[in-house]
Amino acid sequence: MNFSQISSLALAASFAMGATTAGAVEVTGGSVGLSYSAFAEDTDFSHWGLEGAMELGFSRDFSLQIDAAYHDFDFTDIDSTLLGLHGIYHLNDATSLGAFYTFEDVEGAEADIFGIEVGYEVQEWEFEGYIANVDTDLGDGTLGGIKARYEMQEGFGLTGSYDVADDDTGDLSRFAIRLDRDVSVNTNLFLEVGSAKAEAGGVDISEPFVGLGGEINFGADRGTTFDQRGLARLIPGL
User: Fold this and answer.
1) CB 207: neighbour CB atoms within 10 A?
2) Are 136 and 202 in contact (CB under 8 A)?
3) pTM above 0.90, yes or no
4) Could you name the domain of life of the organism this protein comes from (predicted)?
């Protein structure tokens, strides 16, 4: 474990310790979502994802977010499980800071992901960004991404996102544009298009993909503060 991992874990722990002394625990939000994506030119390479998250508020300033997910890649029959924890400090009504840890298991290959994140809201805009260190049996890498969502009329929203993972063997990146709509007070459906790119061993492959899904949100804040962080959710299909 390197210095950046220790710092991220210590920050998450300090958030949790500070929160537990601040007051009673309250479920402030949560979500359950199902998604499907596939490469546009060959839909045999597809990906199903089931994600759930819950956020516990200890005070106005501190909260703890818990993530769980299962991802299945149809063509290769590979599956992935994920457990995550975010320690969150709400600086004010517009800005939230977080430190997170994710444990991800892909067919017995394990990854420990430590990082920091920030979220900001202003009028109809929502922004989110993160950076992390990925520790696996094969070596270390980095993971990071940014997202911006604009809330439109009639319950519609438009989101652009970019995520990238890299290590000594190569790079993987994902760019997507998503259109979503609130179909009820707690339910949101989405359709997205994007491009996934992989570079390894001098080979550069870029493929378009399509995706769709839905999410049910609950709690006072209608969902959680941050997205889940993991490697499998970046890959449209295998």
Assistant:
1) 16
2) no
3) no
4) Bacteria
